[in-house]
Specification:
The complex is a heterodimer of chains A (218) and B (255).
Chain A (H helix, E strand, L loop, with lengths): L11 H35 L2 H16 L2 H14 L6 H27 L2 H10 L3 H16 L1 H14 L11 H12 L2 H32 L2
Chain B lengths: L7 E10 L2 E11 L4 E5 L6 H8 L7 E6 L2 E2 L6 H12 L2 E4 L11 H13 L3 H14 L15 H13 L5 E5 L7 H16 L3 E5 L3 H7 L2 E6 L2 E6 L1 H6 L4 H13 L1
Parallel strand pairs in B: 3-8, 3-9, 6-7, 7-8
Antiparallel strand pairs in B: 1-2, 1-4, 4-5, 9-10
Helix pairs in contact in B: 3-4, 3-5, 4-5, 5-6
The chains are: A mainly alpha (218), B alpha/beta (255).
């Protein structure tokens, strides 16, 4: 049985809507993971043990267990606790927190790499430590993390396919839906793969521009 | 303020790192408008003493006073932070390695603290940046990022940044030590001009000629002790202490 892509066009709208959901998930979870990463990094570096140690445990939980399991926990597990999240929100939170923990590691290293003199100069002017972090240290640290966090964002895009198992109608699930009706897995998975790749290219282009802008601004 | 109250006063400053005592019971006063140089071999504690004045390196014991206010007050963490951030606005500091904020332009470097800490509008802060840059002769660099400035220009911007807070006293921690020799003079010139405006300055330096020409008083420190203090003429021409003499002859021979 050869390939026959004529089965695709009738389902193209479903697939493209799925692709849009994938983009929405990636952008939403990406932003969550970025700002969450900064937040976690600040907790890890600058809070007393009473906050820092529970955070460590939380971090190990997210780094040491499968993302798929985390999604199940958030979507199915929390219902039992009376928290009934829509699948999209559960997926957003699961992906966002998972990658926030990875981003936090990168951001911590980058904050520590900012010259000590920067904090000193800011404190000398009269800034509090929090103000100095916000206006002087973190903005410099964030500039250094665009390439490694960009890599995490690409991983996030690919891992967003996992949320199909909790029923978010993203690209992979849309492809599966079309396959269910047509019994043509090869064609639809191939189309989905191409769309993932296109989104990926778009994301890389955005990241490259971001990197260039940061380079120009110094 | 009482008439005879010293402007800056350090009382019985001691600083220990574990068993190492880097400041051994140092007391000194600086009058308003006075320009004091602290000289001495590296490791003598002069930078530590300077950094104790704004409590960047807190003393183990002793007191620092600025215009009748105890700088290193013992307070609860929260109240101390509030207090010290207020006091530090009055104490400008210039570092050996400039410590300009590389992610901000010259304008951003100068206006950040006045805008955030003194609530200046961006127009007011801009005007302030223009004024201070004129003072250090770098108005044409206002929109440059620090990476595009020479070392001497960076240090002049750092001075302008400190001046923009309208400090009562300026601390210079080896402000020219990291500069190429040909860039030292432009920074010295800016400091000289400040001296002429009667800015109170405490200057840690290795440049004896500069100390001699600009300062009202020179303090020689060694091993955490203020060995001797006096007008530059006397210290440089006619030191009474053997250690001062040894340091100066070594230093002048090398330079």
């Amino acid at each position: 049985m050869g390939l026959d892509f004529s089965v695709v066009p009738p389902y193209l709208d479903i697939i493209l809507i799925g692709a849009l959901w994938t983009v929405a998930l990636t952008v939403g979870a990406g932003l969550l993971s970025f700002f969450g990463g900064i937040f976690f990094a600040l907790i890890a570096l600058y809070t007393p043990a009473i906050l820092r140690l529970p955070f460590r445990a939380f971090e190990w939980l997210f780094m040491g267990t499968p993302l798929l399991l985390q999604l199940f926990l958030i979507y199915f597990g929390l219902v039992q606790m009376g928290v009934d999240l829509p699948a999209f929100v559960a997926g957003l939170i699961g992906l966002g927190l998972h990658f926030a923990v990875y981003n936090s590691e990168i951001i911590q290293a980058s904050i520590l790499a900012v010259d000590k003199g920067q904090m000193e100069a800011a404190r000398t002017l009269g800034f509090s430590r929090a103000q100095a972090l916000r206006k002087v240290v973190v903005p410099q640290a964030v500039r250094e993390v665009v390439p490694p966090i960009g890599n995490n964002m690409i991983a996030l895009l690919k891992d967003s396919a996992l949320v199909s198992v909790i029923g978010v109608g993203e690209l992979t699930l849309s492809a599966q839906l079309a396959i269910g009706r047509t019994y043509r897995p090869f064609e639809f998975y191939l189309v989905a793969a191409i769309l993932y790749y296109i989104v990926n290219l778009g994301m890389e282009a955005v990241l490259r521009r971001l990197e260039r802008r940061i380079r120009l601004a110094r | 303020m009482e008439k005879n109250q010293p402007f800056v006063e350090i009382r019985h400053a001691r600083k220990c790192y574990g068993d190492l005592e880097v400041l051994k019971d140092i007391s000194l006063t600086v009058d308003r408008g006075e320009i004091v140089a602290i000289i001495g071999p590296s490791g003598s504690g002069k930078s530590t003493l300077l950094r104790a004045i704004n409590d960047l390196d807190p003393l183990t014991s002793g007191e620092v006073w600025l215009e009748g206010t105890l700088v290193n007050q013992v307070l609860t963490h929260h109240r101390y932070e509030k207090h010290i951030n207020q006091v530090r606005q009055d104490i400008g500091m210039v570092f050996q390695h400039f410590n300009l904020f590389p992610h901000l332009t010259v304008r951003g470097n100068i206006t950040l603290a006045p805008r955030m800490l003194k609530g200046l509008s961006s127009e007011e802060a801009d005007q302030l940046a223009v004024d201070q840059l004129e003072r250090v002769g770098l108005l044409d660099r206002i929109d440059f990022y620090p990476s595009r400035l020479s070392g001497g220009q960076k240090q002049r911007v750092a001075i302008a940044r400190a001046l923009a807070m309208k400090p009562k006293v300026m601390l210079f921690d080896e402000a020219t030590s990291a500069l190429d020799p040909e860039l030292v003079e432009e920074v010295n010139l800016v400091m000289k001009r400040l001296a002429e405006e009667h800015m109170t300055m405490i200057i840690v330096t290795h440049e004896m000629a500069f100390a001699a020409s600009v300062c009202d008083r020179v303090i020689f420190m060694d091993h955490g002790v203020a060995i001797e203090s006096g007008p530059p003429d006397r210290i440089f021409q006619n030191p009474t202490e053997e250690r001062t003499r040894a340091f100066l002859s070594r230093h002048l021979r090398n330079s």
